[in-house]
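Journal club prep, shared notes

We agreed each person brings one worked example of a sequence with its structure written out as tokens. Mine is LPXTG cell wall surface anchor family-like protein. I'm keeping it raw so we can talk through how to read the token line rather than staring at a rendered picture. Sequence first:
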Amino acid sequence: MNIKDKKINWGVVSVVIGSWLGAMIMLFVMYDMMLSMRAMRGYMGDMSHDMREMKVSMNGMGEKISLMSKDMKIMSREFVEVDQHMSDMYQLMADDLDAMRQSMQVMTPSVATMGPTMNRMGSDMNRGVDSFTSPGHYMWNMMR
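Then the structure, token by token:
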């Protein structure tokens, strides 16, 4: 029997061709997965490196935060000292004002009696000046 005389079984041919196409598709999918896995391994390496850097940065931040905490404690003490100094200053000012008020109370009667005395003294000064400037006034003031 000759090959040309044989009848072609298209069912078997389609199964064989389908199998080969399926195998090629599977190989392509596996190759694509392999590339994806390789890229993912690189990404994971980068991520691991980034996480190490982040850990180092976090440790540095922890040190800075502890320094800041110490500085805040020092500042807190300084605020307390400033507050104490302000309180002392206000107390001194209040004491000075009280002393000034007491001195004013002592001086007030003297100032009240000083008015007529000042008027008399002014009159005496005018008489003295007039006495020097005119002999007539001098004689008149001597009689007064």
